[in-house]
Specification:
The structure holds 2 protein chains of 2 kinds. By secondary structure, chain A is mostly helical. Chain A contains 15 helices and 3 strands. In chain B, helix 2 packs across helix 9 and helix 11 crosses helix 12. Classes of the chains: A mainly alpha, B mainly alpha.
């Protein structure tokens, strides 16, 4: 759901960066408390995720480095630091340390009931906040300057959205793991984007796709041995994306190709008609018949196009001869005029 | 005294650092830093397939296949981007998790009993690198990964020297490169191939994450310090080697993961540069912003003086109220103006000097024409002390 905002804000890879950046937070939280209580660990992850996010912001706004560099930098540096801490922890004489690395790759099966409740509650809060601030989010998304002039505090809204994205990522970490979290965030949103131009519909669809891939993925991975849940969920989501890319009615590749071919046919038809018009115009009688053979030298002429012109009533065929009808002549002479008018 | 294993680890780490810094510099300049992250993840299926065929983690075929997957990633990302359905970053974010998932599933399905787990791929373990020796005719010629990384580095350096001009031109001016007759596409894919190969060659020594860090962090730090491509390359190589060696000793001291600690040192280096770089660092930028704010205030103040001849309007106290500045701020502006000989204060009445008057007239010109360069030159002409 929140992924929609990330995709539309061109911050897609933020998810990836945050999920990596959360690692040192988990490790530090563990170092401080010494316990493997999932709530404190999540808090740590949240804090370090936020620090990472705002540092990325700082790098992008204050220096000349581009956002991709900032993202890659924070991602790898935080993750490396997290690894350092994790290996450091592993050397500590603390029996509790085992299992910290499950956060890395995630394992939905390790979730206990309290985790699920926590997730449900947070999702609920996200939903409520999103509905409350719907208008603000939307306007900030599409026209930040306008929002500012309307007197909204764009910074607060921005921080709010970002915090929720971070929160969602941190929660998701446990389920699908660091590497695949970004896909969970992006894939449903990217798929949903193909089906609609409306934000509300997109968010709804993204949630739907996300839920479906979650359910299907878990089902598939449960049906077979040795399949971890996270990757399967991601692959299911990827299938959704591919299907959406290809089959979506207005933006999909398939329909785009069909439209493309159709346009080309139309153009060929027009070309043939215009060519016929040129020939016919040299005669006083427009319906004076001409041999089909003279059309053969003309590119874009096929039997098919000729037949089509006949079907439309622009051309009449008599044996090997063709002649323009009244209607055909009219259309042909207006063909380019109309286009000019349309252009203007 | 260093043992030979310790020396070898540091040597490998430094070589990897150099091998990464070179393509990394260009990736950062070409705004493709995230591609390296994507490659480092998506080479996993390539490695897995290669491993099934050869059953040897160090075989050249493995590197070739993995590099191929890396290039496939790049092509896929570009294809998705070209359809115009989603933005580039989304395309990257979609492609590599999918490929990575395929890799993870392949490992889980088929390779449970062999030594190849996700942790090793992602994190690597430099500490074991010296124990994997390369034997030629029964004699020990050094660790295998040293040879692999060394070869890759050699190839990279050769390519760098051969195509330096082409790389430089195509990085900074694609149009010019195309018009001069080198195909930007070939250079692009060449660079991508080198990055893939480097990533793969380095991954089993240092892990995928460290490869990304070694590619981006030194280059980003160097980018903040210089605007010269050659210097940037040199600096990022220097940062890379420094972090590799220092990181090794930190890891030795903490008894923790070497790759993690190298990355942390890199992070520290970048943080220091980020804060203290002379012209592009945060502190310098903030200082400059403050200076500019004060200089703008100064100009506002001088304009006010020029517009008002009345004594009452030129009283120090009145200025405080009129332009609505805090005491400290007006004092600092007054001081600055006085230091630069632009005003004189007589009995708390401020008046413009001749120089101040001239400066103000020019400033008005600037405000009307609004040419950026002019005001900086002008400031250089008039200011003895900057804000």
């Amino acid at each position: 759901m929140l992924g929609s905002f990330a995709v539309l804000r061109k911050q897609s890879l933020l998810g990836d960066a945050i999920s990596h950046a959360a690692l040192p937070g988990i490790a530090i939280a563990f170092l401080i408390t010494g316990a493997k209580d999932s709530n404190t660990l999540l808090l740590g992850a949240l804090v370090s995720g936020l620090i990472g996010t705002f540092w990325i912001r700082g790098i992008v706004t204050k220096t000349h480095l581009k956002s991709d560099t900032a993202l890659g930098l924070i991602l790898s540096l935080f993750f490396g630091f997290g690894m350092l801490l994790l290996t450091f922890i592993q050397k500590q004489p603390n029996a509790n340390q085992a299992g910290l690395d499950k956060y890395l790759f995630g394992q939905a099966a390790t979730l206990v009931e309290s985790d699920v409740w926590l997730m449900a509650i947070v999702t609920g809060i996200c939903l409520i906040i999103m509905l409350t601030f719907w208008k603000e989010f939307k306007i900030l998304l599409f026209d930040a300057d306008y929002t500012k002039t309307l007197g909204f505090n764009t910074k607060t809204i921005d921080i709010l959205i970002t915090s929720f994205i971070v929160l969602a990522i941190v929660l998701g970490l446990q389920t699908v793991g660091v590497v695949l979290m970004s896909a969970m965030l992006l894939a449903p949103a990217a798929a949903a984007r193909q089906w609609t131009n409306k934000l509300s519909a997109m968010v709804f669809l993204a949630a739907l796709f996300g839920a479906f891939s979650g359910v299907f993925g878990t089902a598939i991975s449960a049906s077979q041995n040795n399949l971890s849940t996270g990757p399967v969920i991601v692959l299911v989501a990827a299938v959704f994306v591919i299907v959406s890319f290809v089959f979506s009615p207005s933006r999909g590749l398939l329909f785009k190709q069909i439209r493309f071919i159709k346009n080309r046919r139309d153009l060929e038809l027009h070309k043939t008609l215009a060519f016929m018009h040129n020939i016919a115009a040299t005669h006083e009688d427009i319906s004076h018949p001409h041999a089909i053979i003279i059309l053969n030298n003309f590119q874009g002429y096929t039997k098919g196009t000729l037949q089509k012109l006949v079907d439309k009533g622009y051309v009449e065929l008599q044996g090997n001869m063709w002649s323009l009808t009244e209607k055909g002549f009219e259309t042909a002479s207006n063909l380019y005029n109309q286009q000019n008018e349309n252009d203007e | 005294m260093m043992s030979s294993a310790q020396f070898e680890i540091q040597l490998i780490a430094s070589l990897v650092a150099v091998a990464c810094a070179i393509p990394g510099t260009f990736l950062v300049l070409r705004k493709m830093a995230m591609i390296s992250d994507a490659i480092s993840h998506s080479i996993l299926p390539g490695i897995v397939i290669g491993f099934f065929i050869t059953h040897d983690l160090n075989s050249p075929l493995l590197i070739l296949l993995a590099a191929l997957t890396g290039i496939i990633t790049v092509i896929l990302v570009e294809y998705i981007q070209k359809t115009g359905l989603v933005k580039e970053d989304t395309a990257i974010g979609l492609v590599f998790p999918a490929l990575f998932s395929i890799g993870v599933i392949m490992i889980a399905k088929n390779a449970n009993d062999v030594h190849l787990d996700v942790d090793a791929v992602l994190l690597g373990e430099l500490a074991f690198a010296p124990f994997d020796r390369l034997l030629i005719g029964g004699t020990d010629v050094g660790p295998k990964s040293l040879w692999i990384v060394g070869t890759i580095l050699l190839i990279t350096i050769t390519l760098l020297f051969t195509f330096f001009k082409e790389l430089k031109v195509s990085t900074f001016d694609k149009g010019l490169a195309a018009s001069l007759g080198f195909s930007p596409a070939i250079i692009h894919y060449g660079l991508m191939s080198v990055s893939s190969v480097t990533t793969v060659g380095a991954f089993d020594a240092v892990g995928a994450i460290l490869v990304v860090a070694l590619m981006i962090a030194p280059a980003a730090a160097a980018y903040l310090l210089t605007t010269d491509l050659k210097k940037m390359l040199g600096l990022s190589i220097g940062f890379g080697i420094f972090s590799a060696i220092l990181g090794y000793w930190v890891a030795h001291w903490l008894d923790a993961s070497i790759s993690g600690s190298i990355t942390s040192v890199l992070g520290l280096v970048f943080l220091l540069v980020y804060l203290f770089a002379p012209t592009k660092g945060i502190i310098a930028v903030m200082y400059r912003e403050k200076q500019q704010r004060r200089e703008v205030s100064l100009i506002t103040f001088l304009l006010h003086l020029k517009n008002h001849d009345e004594i009452s309007e030129r009283h120090v106290k009145h200025l405080n109220e009129h332009i609505n500045w805090q005491k400290v701020r007006s004092k600092s502006v007054l001081d600055l103006a006085q230091k630069n000989n632009m005003i004189t204060i007589d009995n708390n009445i401020v008046s413009l000097t001749e120089k101040g008057d001239e400066f103000t007239s020019k400033a008005i010109d600037y405000i009307i024409t609004n040419e950026d360069a002019q005001i900086e030159d002008m400031k250089d002409d008039f200011f003895l002390f900057r804000g």
